Amino acid sequence: MSGIIFTDANFEAEVLKSDLPVLVDFYADWCGPCKMIAPIVEELAKEYKGKLKVGELDVDTSTETAQKYGVMSIPTLIIFKGGQVVSTLVGFRPKEALAAEINKILQ
Amino acid sequence: MSYDVIIIGSGPAGLTAAIYNIRAGFKVLVIAGYAWGGQLMLTTEVENYPGFPDGILGPDLMQKMRQQAENLGVEFIDKDAVEIDVNKRPFKVYTGLNTQIEGRTVIIATGAATKWLDVPGEKELIGKGISSCAPCDAFFFKGKNVIVVGGGDSAMEETLVLARVVNSVAIIHRRHEFRASQIMQDRVFANAKIKVLWNTMVTEVLGKDKVTGVRLRNYSSSEARSQNDSSRPFASNNNTKESEMPIDGVFVAIGHKPNSEKFIGRIDLDDKGYVIRHEQYEGKLLKYWSSTNVDGVFVAGDVHDYRYKQAVTAAGFGCIAGLDAEKWLDEQKG
C-alpha cells in the first residue's frame, strides 16, 4: 500500500502536527473504488516524496477520526496543512485531477 | 503505438474480449479507464456468476479477470479514452492531447454509469449522505435511518447491504411493484428492518452540510411516471401527497446510462445513447453480430445492452465481439 498508516492513535502526531502537508486516503477493505484509487495514491506518494506526506486510514478501525472529519463516503481523500483541512475529495478521481489539487496546495 | 485490437472498457465485456483476442495471437490493448473494472467494482457478493459456488466479491471477480488478461499478455492503459477517430483506418483512439493509439479494430465496451435522481439538493450532497455504493458507504450509517431509491436488483442489493448495519431502510419506488428478481424481492420482504413506499418519488434532498431529509411525492398508481420525466407536467390530483421525511442517507439505484458520450457523431447511437448494433450477413447467414455502423468497430456489454445487463451476459457479449474482431482481422489478411 502507500506506506504510512494513519490511525486514531497517531493521527495528531503524524497528520495534524506534521511539518509537511498531508494527504490522507480514507478507505476500507470492502470498498471497490478504494481499490481503484489505492495504486494512484501510491504513485502520488512516490512522486511527491519530500513535499507531501501520503498515507491511508482504515475507517473500519479508526472510526473516530473518520467521524470527526465527516467522512460518509469512501474513498475520501483529505489534504491537511498546518493541522487544518485544506481540501476534501470524495469518490474516485483520476490521477491528473488529484495531482492538480495537490499542486494548487503546494504552491 | 499500434495494435490489432483496441478495447475501450475493462468490465466483464472488455476483459473477455481481450482474453479471446490475445489467445488468437493478436496484439491487444485495453484502455481500462481511470475507474477500471466497471460497475462490479461497486458491488459486494456476486452470487449469479457461474463457477463460484460460494459467491465472489464483485471487485475480486474483476481483479481476477484482469489478472487473467494480463497473464496472457494483454496490455493495459489506466486512462480514459477521450476521443476516437473512426473515419479512416487504422482507427485512432486518444487518451490525451498528444497520445494517439492506432488500432486495426476497436471494440467498444465502455459500459454504463449510475443514473442520479437529478433533483434539487442532490449534486451538493453527494458524498455527504447521498451515495450510489451501499457496499462502500453503508458503514457510515450504522444505527441510522436511510432510504434506497429504485426497484431493480441493484436497489434490492443496496437495501440488503444497508439493512445489516442501519436502524431502518425504506425503499422509495415510483411504481407499485419491483422489477427485481424474485429471490432478491423475497429477501427484502423477509427483512423486518426494510419497508417499502410504493408509487413515491423523491423530489428534493434536504440538508446543508449533510443530508437531513427528503421531500417525497406520493401518487396513485394510475399516474405512475418516470423519476426523470420532467417533460409532462404533473397533473394536479387529489391523490397526490407531498411530504417530508427526515433521513440520514439516500442511496440511489434507479438504473444506469450508457457511457457513450464520446462516440456521439462517430458511432450510431439510439435515442437513449446505447450503441446500435448493425448485424452483417453473408447471404442468409449471420456474419457479424456485434458490428456497429463502422466496419471494423464492434460493441459489447452494457453500452449496447439495454435489456439484460448482467456480468455474465456482458462477458458473453465480450466473447462475441472478440470473435467478430478476430474474423474481421483474418479477412483483411486474406
Q: Most extensive interface, residues per chain? A: A-B, 23 and 31 residues
Structural class of chain B: alpha/beta
Residue stretches of chain B low in confidence (pLDDT < 50, at least 5 long) are 229-236
State the helix count of chain A.
4
State mean pLDDT of chain B (0 to 100 scale).
92
Which geometry of chain A do the CA atoms define?
globular
Notes on the protein architecture:
With 107 residues, chain A is of the alpha/beta class. Chain A is built from 4 helices and 5 strands. The model of chain A has no long low-confidence stretch (mean pLDDT 91). Chain A is globular and about 30 Å long. In chain A, 37% of the residues lie in helices and 26% in strands. Chain A has a 5-stranded mixed sheet with strand order 1-3-2-4-5. Chain A has one domain: Glutaredoxin (3-Layer(aba) Sandwich), CATH 3.40.30.10. By secondary structure, chain B is α/β, with parallel strands linked by helices. Chain B folds into 2 domains: 188 residues, FAD/NAD(P)-binding domain; 137 residues, FAD/NAD(P)-binding domain. Chain B is built from 7 helices and 21 strands. In chain B, strands 1, 2, 5, 6, 7, 8 and 21 form a 7-stranded mixed sheet that branches. In chain B, strand 12, helix 6 and strand 13 form a beta-alpha-beta unit. In chain B, helix 1 packs parallel to helix 2, helix 1 runs parallel beside helix 7 and helix 5 packs parallel to helix 6. The longest helix of chain B is centred in the last third of the chain and has 23 residues. The radius of gyration of chain B is 22 Å and the shape is elongated. About 2% of the residues of chain B have low confidence. Chains A and B meet through helix 2 of A and helix 2 and helix 4 of B.
